[in-house]
C-alpha cells in the first residue's frame, strides 16, 4: 500500500525530507504523498520514515492503494532505475 497523509497534518515539515523517494510534497493545505512514488520505504528502510517522524500520527496506509511487499519492491526498483 502507499501511504496517505490525513487532514490531521499540522504542516510541521518533518516528513518531506525523510522520504527517500521524494514522494512527499506540500499540497494546497497539507502535505501529500504521491502514491506512484511511495514504496513505504521498501528498498531503503525497514519502516516508513515519514511515519517514524510524524508527531501527530497522521500517515496511515491508503486502503484504496493496496500493494504487497513484492509490488512495493518492484516499484522501488522501477523508481531507482530511472
Automatic annotation (TrEMBL):
It comes from the Bacteria. InterPro entries: 4Fe4S_Fe-S-bd (IPR017896), 4Fe4S_Fe_S_CS (IPR017900), PSI_iron-sulfur_center (IPR050157), YfhL-like (IPR047927). Residues 1-29, 31-64 form the 4Fe-4S ferredoxin-type domain. One of its GO terms (molecular function) is metal ion binding. Pfam families: Fer4_7. The keyword Electron transport applies. GO terms for cellular component: cytoplasm. Keywords: 4Fe-4S, Electron transport, Iron, Iron-sulfur, Metal-binding, Repeat, Transport. Gene3D superfamilies: 3.30.70.20. PROSITE patterns: 4FE4S_FER_1 (PS00198), 4FE4S_FER_2 (PS51379). This is Ferredoxin. It comes from Sedimenticola thiotaurini.
